[in-house]
């Protein structure tokens, strides 16, 4: 989720990346000051879900960065600090 034109009004877009990774882009113009509140409320209620590719210990941050930079996997790579038990990722929908 993003709000605002962080990169300006025009940004370069390689649509092949969208197609090959089955990425959906949904956008709308803001309708009012409550839009951000509604989005944050939806996130807090669990209505926005991130696809998690893998969960790795923080000590493997260099490898995690390599995985992301190489475009391997599908979804987010989550780093877990020492002493925190990683939570299993929810199964992916078929």
UniProtKB/TrEMBL annotation:
What Pfam families does UniProt report for this protein, alphabetically? ADH_zinc_N_2 (PF13602)
> Matching Gene3D superfamilies, A to Z?
Medium-chain alcohol dehydrogenases, catalytic domain
**The protein's name:** Zinc-binding dehydrogenase
Say which species the protein is native to.
Muricoccus vinaceus
């Amino acid at each position: 989720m993003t709000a605002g034109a962080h990169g300006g009004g025009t940004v370069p877009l390689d649509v092949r990346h969208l197609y090959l990774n089955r990425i959906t882009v949904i956008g709308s113009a803001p309708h009012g000051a409550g839009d951000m509140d509604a989005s944050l409320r939806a996130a807090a209620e669990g209505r926005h879900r991130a696809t998690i590719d893998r969960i790795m210990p923080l000590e493997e941050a260099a490898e995690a960065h390599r995985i992301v930079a190489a475009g391997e996997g599908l979804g987010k790579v989550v780093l877990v600090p020492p002493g925190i038990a990683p939570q299993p990722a929810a199964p992916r929908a078929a």
